[in-house]
Amino acid sequence: MRIVTDIPGGNFAVEKIENNVIYGHQELRDTTEWWFYWRFRMTELVQGDNYRVEFTNGEVVGYWGPAVKFGQEDWHFIGEEHRVSGSCFTFTVPEHCDTAEFAFCIPYDVENWNRFVEKYRDNPLVETGVLCLSEKGREVPYMRIGKKGNHGTFMLTARHHACESTGNYLMEGIIDHLLSWDNPLIYPVLQRYEVMVVPFVDLDGIVDGDQGKARAPHDHNRDYQEGRYITVRKVKELAKRTDDLIAIDCHSPYKWGGMSDVPYMVRPTTKKNALRTAELGRELRLNCMFQKPEDCLIYEQLLDKHVQMDWDGNFLEGGDTLREKPPLACDDWMAESGARVCTSFETTYFGRPWNRTSQKTMRGLGGQLALALEHYLMMQED
């Protein structure tokens, strides 16, 4: 058996291996606070062998155990029966399998994105290309959807924090819905907006397997004042092309517990944008009322983060008290730039027992969010 971490998104430090028990921890690298992302591959496995993985730096094994990919299978959670504790899991090597890959959550890599855009290669409304080169010289992809020169811009971004992979599945669901109509140009989003999609804001962090959250000197989502990172500067350039701007920035919350087990919107700190985000949320809540929990992560608007809440979801004392404002983040920069609607949309890593996170449920929620945006725009006078 060998453990390999030199893979896209790899992050794991082996401390020792004793009798098929592996001890190790997630690498924090240039992250300035404790975080929980990890991923590694095991090769030269033998069918029927049993293994135990013990993490030595905190609880980083979720409710349903780790995400796993045995051989050529698709990623899935191994199951709560394999979760010994928040810092330990076990598994048995299945038949006809000599390789397995494990991760904190269901990953999403450049390879996933390339497979996704391939199905739209011949769609005349879709253009794909390279937005820019990252700090390490990697090609940062983008997608443009709709007619060039449309009245407004809909900015759709993800992975400001490298480890937050759930947002890309939400993004796929949004795009699939926008392009699902026989003639999508008669619907208000693509009729009025040119959609600009940046799936990997911190591409270097994703490929290198960084946590990305709280990166020193600051992470990509706290860079909208300085513009230190190339991709952030490009996102700002795209957003400034129009006075009619909609922006959805896709994120994942904390690892689990409380509000981190449900999808929710973070409302901007400007009152006008907070109210418009609430209107969009109302439409999404109505849509989700008719969805099956096995098909869609269920959004409940009452769980949105208001500006009068702290980051744990508790209301602050005093009716005019607002949560402490961090260095300018993407959604707040969009709001201050005059966006019609803007929000950070948080998609849970694991979900709840009756409504679990999977590729299907994340994409399902993305489709309902796109439909909610259409309903919202239909009710606007301008």
Molecular structure report:
By secondary structure, the protein is of the alpha+beta class. The chain has two domains: 2-103, Immunoglobulin-like (Sandwich), CATH 2.60.40.3120; 110-378, Zn peptidases (Aminopeptidase, 3-Layer(aba) Sandwich). It has eight helices and 19 strands. It has a seven-stranded mixed sheet with strand order 11-12-14-13-15-17-16. Strands 1-4-10-6-7 form a five-stranded antiparallel sheet, with no helix packed on it. A five-stranded mixed sheet has the order 2-3-5-9-8, with no helix packed on it. Helix 2 packs across helix 8 (359-378) and helix 6 crosses helix 8 (359-378). It is globular.
In a nutshell, what does this entry contain?
With 382 residues, the protein is an alpha+beta fold. It has helices at residues 110-118, 166-178, 188-192, 203-208, 230-239, 271-288, 330-336, 359-378; strands spanning 2-4, 13-18, 21-25, 39-43, 50-55, 67-70, 76-77, 83-85, 88-92, 100-103, 126-133, 139-145, 152-158, 193-198, 245-251, 264-266, 341-346, 351-352, 355-356. The protein starts with a strand and ends with a helix.
List keywords for this structure.
single chain, 382 residues, alpha+beta, Aminopeptidase, 2 domains
Topology, element by element:
Layout: E1 2-4, E2 13-18, E3 21-25, E4 39-43, E5 50-55, E6 67-70, E7 76-77, E8 83-85, E9 88-92, E10 100-103, H1 110-118, E11 126-133, E12 139-145, E13 152-158, H2 166-178, H3 188-192, E14 193-198, H4 203-208, H5 230-239, E15 245-251, E16 264-266, H6 271-288, H7 330-336, E17 341-346, E18 351-352, E19 355-356, H8 359-378
Parallel strand pairs: 3-5, 13-14, 13-15, 15-17
Antiparallel strand pairs: 1-4, 2-3, 4-10, 5-9, 6-7, 6-10, 8-9, 11-12, 12-14, 16-17, 18-19
